[in-house]
Amino acid sequence: MEENRSERSANEGDPKVTARPPRRVVTGHDGSGASIVLSDGPTPRSHDMGVAVFHEVWNTRAVPASISATEPEPTERPLVTPPDPGGTIIRYTDIKPGQSSPMHRTESVDYGIVLEGEVYLELGGGGEVLLRPGDIVIQRGTDHVWANRTESTARMAFILVDGKFTPELKSTIGDTELYDQALDAT
């Protein structure tokens, strides 16, 4: 199951081309309970949304997550920004050069880690922060935009955890539109 690292895209190294899907290794158990590798390869689902490519790595539908010897592919579902109620998502997002997300808010705690390139976090209140590789954002239900103002693809890893606004925060921000619709047609 080992990936052949010598097989590379003809466009690899071109910073304007979206990076190849990340490698995902999933472990589990065999019939005797021994720990094994169930799969080893590129993420099974990547969604090109025009401004960015979402590489879905894994998700859970509840915490604590149910752990069985094997399970169906959890990324076989429509692409949505937030996790299921009580769930989690891990994904890589490649933001294309000169592109940005729409302003959006989710009722979740999101850990965003810049892996490659530069990204601006623009907040609905007017602030912005330049992020570089190794920088981590803890996104706590705020209105925000991810903007790549460079000529190279920027790659981020996101771990999203379902959350709930406190009554005090809800009274401050009011009825706000959440970004929770399916982004693709699958």
Describe the structure.
The structure is a single chain. The chain has 186 residues and is mostly beta strands. It has a domain at 46-173: Sandwich (Jelly Rolls), CATH 2.60.120. It is 4% helix and 39% strand. The protein has one helix at residues 167-173; strands at residues 23-29, 35-42, 45-48, 52-60, 88-95, 108-116, 119-123, 128-131, 136-140, 144-147, 154-162. Strands 3-4-5-11-6-9 form a 6-stranded antiparallel β-sheet, with no helix packed on it. A 3-stranded antiparallel β-sheet has the order 8-7-10, with no helix packed on it. A hairpin with a 5-residue loop joins strand 1 (23-29) and strand 2 (35-42). The radius of gyration is 18 Å and the shape is globular. The chain starts with 22 loop residues before the first strand and ends in a 13-residue tail after the last helix.
Per-chain topology:
Elements: E1 23-29, E2 35-42, E3 45-48, E4 52-60, E5 88-95, E6 108-116, E7 119-123, E8 128-131, E9 136-140, E10 144-147, E11 154-162, H1 167-173
Antiparallel strand pairs: 1-2, 3-4, 4-5, 5-11, 6-9, 6-11, 7-8, 7-10
In short, what is this structure?
With 186 residues, the chain is mainly beta. Helices cover 4% and strands 39% of the residues. It is globular.
The whole-number mean of residue pLDDT values reads 87
Which CATH-level-2 architecture of one domain?
Answer: Sandwich
* SSE succession: EEEEEEEEEEEH
CATH class of one domain: Mainly Beta
Approximately how much helix is present in the residues? under 10%
Termini separation: 28 Å
Task: Characterize the quaternary organization of these chains.
Answer: single chain
Question: Count the helices. How many?
Answer: 1
Task: Specify the CATH homologous superfamily of one domain.
Answer: Jelly Rolls
Tell me, what's the shape?
globular
* Backbone CA Rg: 18 Å
**Number of DSSP-assigned strands:** 11
Percentage of residues in strands: 35-45%
